[in-house]
């Protein structure tokens, strides 16, 4: 039985990854401070990843899956680990500067992105720190992740609008495009990396086809059997005050991912899964006061 170490393991991406490998029959360890409920089937290593000491020295992991946010995260983890086999870092599309040629390819120059700021540059540093010490590590760069366990107020915000039969306030004409990737597809791609060990070690991942904001909202309302009524917002105000995404359209070139994994979950199906989870776990989503702003300033 392979041993897997997942850093975090209590929120969205890392939690879903941990449960994915539990379902595959692996021996899954999660490393966190035990401040949230743990998933069933995992083995907890209760610790702060920045103060591990000798906690991991006597352990060997066949796979380490890390959602590190900085070079310091990577360096302290690698210093603390005893033995390990494969290493996968979940990075971000935020490593590409907004002014670069799109769709972004894996070999495009990395630099600060004015929308993602420090989050993106810290991910750049994390990637560099990992590859400096382990050139065989894998790095995946997803766009917007969605699906069950998503604690970010994105699709859940639209579900709330639909459940309350609210009009949807659409940024401008709603033609800005969004690129998504289902969290289960991310896990399936990790399976492929671990099984096939491709020579390439950095991959953009995501759905090949992007959707407009309008199309995405219509799909979310459709999950509830409802039709969205739109109000266009053309005022020069910060979009994130009333909508879940930056006023930033980008696209990842995912050709190399599709060469290894040619099928992805249809967006409508993925949103249905997200809603089924949200109906039961709505209290786990970090909701923002978007309705307050809309009601005070736009309605």
Could you characterize the architecture of this molecule?
The chain has 9 helices and 13 strands. Strand 1 (3-7), helix 1 (12-23) and strand 2 form a beta-alpha-beta unit. The mean pLDDT is 97. It folds into 2 domains: 3-146 and 181-204, Rossmann fold; 155-178 and 209-249 and 266-291, UDP-galactose 4-epimerase, domain 1, CATH 3.90.25.10. It has 299 residues and is α/β, with parallel strands linked by helices. The strands form 4 sheets. It has a 7-stranded parallel β-sheet. Helix 2 (71-80) packs parallel to helix 3 and helix 4 (155-163) crosses helix 6 (213-223). It has helices at residues 12-23, 71-80, 118-133, 155-163, 183-196, 213-223, 255-260, 267-281, 290-297; strands at residues 3-7, 27-32, 43-46, 60-66, 83-90, 138-141, 144-146, 168-171, 177-178, 180-182, 202-204, 211-212, 230-233.
**H/I helix tally:** 9
Major β-sheet profile: 7 strands, parallel
Question: What gap, in angstroms, lies between the N and C termini?
Answer: 57 Å
- Low-pLDDT sequence parts: none
**Which value, in Å, is the CA radius of gyration?**
20 Å
Shape: globular
The average pLDDT is 97
| The named CATH superfamily of the largest domain | NAD(P)-binding Rossmann-like Domain
Instruction: Give the total of beta strands.
Output: 13
Query: Order of strands across the widest beta sheet?
Result: 3-2-1-4-5-6-11
What's the helix and strand layout?
Layout: E1 3-7, H1 12-23, E2 27-32, E3 43-46, E4 60-66, H2 71-80, E5 83-90, H3 118-133, E6 138-141, E7 144-146, H4 155-163, E8 168-171, E9 177-178, E10 180-182, H5 183-196, E11 202-204, E12 211-212, H6 213-223, E13 230-233, H7 255-260, H8 267-281, H9 290-297
Parallel strand pairs: 1-2, 1-4, 2-3, 4-5, 5-6, 6-11, 7-10, 8-13
Antiparallel strand pairs: 9-12
Helix pairs in contact: 2-3, 4-6
């Amino acid at each position: 039985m392979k041993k897997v170490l997942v850093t975090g393991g209590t929120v969205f991406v890392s939690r879903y990854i941990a449960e994915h490998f539990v379902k595959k029959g692996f021996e899954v360890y999660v490393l966190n401070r035990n401040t949230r409920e743990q998933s069933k089937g995992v083995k907890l290593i209760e610790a702060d990843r920045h103060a591990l000491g000798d906690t991991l020295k006597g352990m060997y992991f066949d796979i380490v899956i890390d959602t590190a946010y900085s070079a310091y995260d990577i360096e302290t983890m690698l210093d603390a680990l005893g033995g390990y086999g494969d290493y996968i870092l979940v990075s971000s599309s935020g490593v590409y500067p907004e002014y670069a040629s799109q769709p972004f390819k894996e070999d495009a120059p990395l630099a600060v992105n004015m929308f993602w700021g420090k989050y993106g540059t810290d991910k750049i540093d994390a990637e560099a720190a990992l590859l400096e010490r382990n050139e065989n590590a894998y790095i995946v760069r997803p766009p917007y992740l969605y699906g069950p366990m998503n604690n970010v107020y994105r699709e859940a915000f639209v579900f709330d609008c639909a459940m309350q039969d609210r009009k949807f306030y659409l940024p401008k004409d709603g033609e800005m495009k969004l690129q998504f990737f289902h969290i289960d597809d991310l896990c399936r791609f990790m399976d492929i990396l671990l099984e096939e060990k491709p020579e390439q070690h950095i991959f953009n991942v995501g759905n090949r086809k992007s959707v407009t904001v309008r199309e995405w909202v219509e799909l979310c309302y459709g999950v509830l059997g409802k039709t969205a009524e739109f109000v266009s917002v053309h005022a020069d105000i910060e979009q994130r005050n009333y909508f879940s995404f930056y006023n930033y359209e980008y696209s990842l070139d995912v050709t190399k991912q599709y060469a290894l994994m040619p099928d992805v979950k249809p967006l409508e199906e993925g949103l249905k899964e997200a809603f089924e989870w949200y109906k039961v776990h709505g209290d786990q989503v970090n909701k923002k006061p978007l309705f307050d702003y809309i009601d005070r300033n736009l309605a």
